[in-house]
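Aggregate trends can hide what the representation actually does to any particular protein. This step matters because it turns folding into a mapping between discrete strings. For completeness, the protein is quoted in full, as a sequence line and a line of structure tokens:
=====
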Amino acid sequence: MRMRTIIVDDEAPARLKVKQYLKDYPDIEVVGEADNGADAIREIEEKKPDLVILDIQMPEMDGFEVISALSEPPLIIFATAYDQYAIRAFEVNSIDYLLKPFSKIRLKEALERAKGYLKKDFEAKIDDLLKLVEEEKKYLSRISVRKGKKIIVLDVLDIVWIGAEETLNFVYTKENRYLVNYTLAELEEKLDPKLFFRIHRSSLANLNFISEIVPWFAGQYKVVMRDREKTQLTLSRRRVKALKEIFPW
């Protein structure tokens, strides 16, 4: 993983010196540079670098103002000839503070710290992705149902609602009804709760197919589904609050 870097300094020799130092690091790519705050903001917003080596003392707009103007600041290493800015530099969450003139060794320390931050961030993103994948694995994406003697495999996204009738459970699409061997409790567990909502003890509704929520008597509601029959399902009083959190009314 290459660390995309922008160098910001109002002095050309200072920028050149940093670029020469960075040539020793094949995993660092200099993707831009700027000699003033306004150009720095444009470069950072456009190129979205991982790291900015940023001078503090610049005409018109200093390094702190640059950071304040950014919607999503990248990792920042401050570089300045003035040590009175050190405390403020760390207050704005920079990862290091280089006092000019700094050595290759001192820059290396700062870069290693930046790499550590990026690695943690990358690992955190990977962990989040793996958790998401594991979460998706928990839920069925397809389900086997019966129509007469046929066994049909349905995409769960095509299911409008699922209902219990006496001892049997049926899956409804826009056009057809199919017998399913799962109980409603099992289906509630196996189907993604972001998609399927238990509106009543006898029915599950696909949230994407709800077209209306109609007031009924005694504080009850009917849920109208977007299928051929415009099926009306009873919304249990106990489930009204939970559905209101999804579709506020």
The radius of gyration is 30 Å.
